[in-house]
Write a structure and sequence with these properties.
- By secondary structure, the protein is mainly α.
- It has one domain: Glycerol uptake facilitator protein (Up-down Bundle).
- The chain contains 13 helices and no strands.
- InterPro entries: Aquaporin-like, For/NO2_transpt.
- GO terms for molecular function: formate transmembrane transporter activity.
- It is a multi-pass membrane protein.
Length: 289
């Protein structure tokens, strides 16, 4: 097949895919959204994010990094409060009940969180509406904003926590060590699973029609991540950066190692295991002849 014929075949294939997406509607009697309808909504939301100004994206991303810090505040407070009453392991498991709070604030508040947006931003590239270069550019902007917001809230909480007597630097160190005590390959694999779950969270949010069910979905997914100890790059950034600033036992190289593998793993989990698989599952059902 010549290049021209191949290009025509690809253009026809893409036209059929876009046509099927436009026709996608709810098919069940209870009004539940179909696979195609969810995919269409995800693509629309992803394209809307691409069309936003860089300054708006950065500010929204910084806001998400700040707001996710409230999860960290509650993690430190709960861990500190219960560590004298139960084992450290049990105290950390208990923090899974408060871990979702920051995510609820960020997601319902429409701030841009990297892990929640990973699959959302990948879909327009798979659908050939945006380029890989534009994806990497917007990822870089969102990650930068999330990290800046995380650094800022970490420094604020390091000051106010001890002042209020709700936690001390020893708690900050233990939480940072808990996140970074694993080999790089373990952090990477754990982060893939966390990214996978966050991508599914975004997908499930699009399938939901009311706020209460969305809160339940956010709680279930993020509490599961916390209880199992899966690595989330943005919450983990606050945890480990706070330890880096306050403890001599957290070195800069340790922080960089954690952040690299957590971000990389989250990106792979969201882009490959959610965006690619969900998109291909829809495409393979389309007659492209």
């Amino acid at each position: 097949m010549s290049d021209t014929e191949s290009d025509k075949e690809e253009a026809k294939r893409q036209k059929n895919i876009d046509s099927e997406l436009k026709k996608s509607t709810s098919k069940s009697s209870d009004g539940a959204k179909s696979h195609g309808e969810i995919l269409k909504q995800q693509l629309t939301e992803g394209l809307e994010t691409y069309d936003k100004k860089a300054s708006s994206l950065l500010l929204s991303s910084v806001t998400a990094g700040l707001e996710i810090g409230f999860s960290y505040l509650l993690i430190c407070t709960v861990y500190s409060y219960f560590s004298d009453e139960m084992s450290e392991a049990d105290s950390y498991k208990l923090t899974a009940l408060v871990y979702p709070v920051g995510f609820i604030m960020v997601i319902l508040g429409q701030s841009i969180l990297f892990t929640e947006q990973t699959s959302l931003l990948t879909l327009p590239v798979l659908n050939k509406k945006r380029s890989l270069r534009s994806l990497l550019k917007i990822w870089g902007l969102v990650i930068s904003g999330n990290l800046i917001g995380g650094y800022t809230i970490a420094l604020l909480l390091l000051w106010i926590g001890p002042k209020l007597g709700i936690f001390d630097y020893a708690v900050v160190e233990k939480i940072a060590l808990h996140a970074t005590e694993y080999p790089s390959e373990v952090i990477f694999t754990s982060a893939i699973l966390a990214g996978w779950l966050m991508g599914l969270l975004s997908w499930l949010m699009s399938s939901s029609r009311d706020t209460l069910s969305r809160i339940v979905i956010i709680f279930i997914i993020t509490a599961m991540m916390a209880f199992t100890g899966l690595h989330h790059s943005i919450v983990g950034n606050v945890e480990v950066f706070a330890g880096l600033v306050s403890s001599p036992n957290i070195q800069f190289a340790r922080y960089l190692n954690f952040q690299f593998f957590a971000l990389f793993g989250n990106a792979v989990g969201g882009a490959v295991f959610v965006a690619l698989l969900k998109y291909r599952a829809f495409v393979y059902n389309i007659d492209v002849k």
